Amino acid sequence: MSENEKLLRSSDDTRSEQSNDCEDNDSFQTQRRPKGFLSRNAVTLGLAASNILLLVTLVLTIFFWKPSQIERFVETYSPARESIDFMLKNEHATDHSVQSKYSGYPNDDNNKAWEDLIQPTFFGATEQEIMQAGDTVDDSVKLEDGGYVAALGVYHEVHCLRQLRLFLYSEHYYPNLTHDNILYLQGHLDHCLEALRMSVMCNADLSLYTFRWKAANDDRPYPKSNASRKCVNWDGVESWAMQRKVSLTPMLLRTTGEADRIHL
Ligand SMILES: *[C@@H]1O[C@H](CO)[C@@H](O)[C@H](O)[C@H]1NC(C)=O
Ligand SMILES: *[C@@H]1O[C@H](CO)[C@@H](O)[C@H](O)[C@H]1NC(C)=O
User: Does ligand 1 come within 6 angstroms of the Cβ of 134?
Assistant: First the structure.
């Protein structure tokens, strides 16, 4: 019997063992080693070859595979990012009878909550922070005290929510609006809705919401959710913003170099 024939035979032996093993319903034993010295060598070679193949596949995979999972962890630069962490929350505003400190018909408490919330809207960004965010300082507005006037995106959204709230209760906040006032506010608030729509769709909350009946004669069911969702730790955002904040009406430098207190 030539060497090749022996190899062939040994693999035939293995195959017949395999089929027996399959009949025995014990697939783990298909790896059982043949007995002879040469056939053991053949198995060692085979294993080495398949290990090399596995290694090559692995290396190629690591280099060329662009898995979609990686996109789940995309991070973008923000000067605030480093100091802010995430947490799980399962608060959902599904119950209309539950008020937060921000909601409800205008009163001193909810007005103060909104005022406090917007205090750190603006901060002074450094040139380096602006460059790292992929922007340019060429046309950025300078603060009189140094740096460039800036805001985190979330504070633009908070501003928009607040403006919408003021308009929602316009009989309280804007008595005696003229037709022109209303047209102006509608234009501004439509833009605010756009900003919020983009952000909501960008951050697509994927929490599971369902519905429940509260009473047998309800006209329609009520939404509910007990889903956890990933949230930034707002206290972290706020303390970062408070440390960096400038006035809500900061002193800005005009292109002429003149300084002016401006309501942004
Ligand atoms: C709104 O108009 C009423 C009467 O026309 C007037 O008494 C009131 O002072 C006005 N309010 C404001 C904030 O201008
Ligand atoms: C809501 O979720 C929490 C944990 O996420 C769980 O402990 C609790 O039992 C859930 N409540 C209901 C009503 O399912």
Answer: no
Quote the pTM value: 0.72
For ligand 1, the distance from its centroid to the CA atom of residue 181, given in whole angstroms, is 15
Ligand 2 in reach of 210 Cβ (< 6 A): no
Handedness of CA 119, 120, 124, 130 (dihedral sign): negative
> Using 50, 70 and 90 to split pLDDT, how confident is the model at 225?
very high
pLDDT, average across residues 115-137:
98
What would the pLDDT profile of 24-38 be if each residue is shown by its tens digit? 434 333 344 444 455
**Can you give the residue ranges of every domain in the chain?**
87-205+220-261
Nearest to 33 by CA among 11, 52, 48, 54: 11
Burial class (CB in 10 A: 0-12, 13-18, 19+), 155: buried
Taking the CA of 174 as reference, the closest ligand is 1
pLDDT single digits (tens) 62-77 = 666 665 555 666 789 9
Say yes or no: CB of residue 228 within 6 Å of ligand 2.
yes
- What whole-number distance in Å separates Cα of residue 166 and Cα of residue 189? 10
Residue 130 and residue 79: Cα distance in Å, rounded? 9
Q: Would you say 143 and 250 are in contact if contact means Cβ atoms under 8 Å apart?
A: yes
Nearest CA to ligand 1 atom 7: 176
Evaluate: CB of 226 within 6 angstroms of ligand 2. Answer: yes
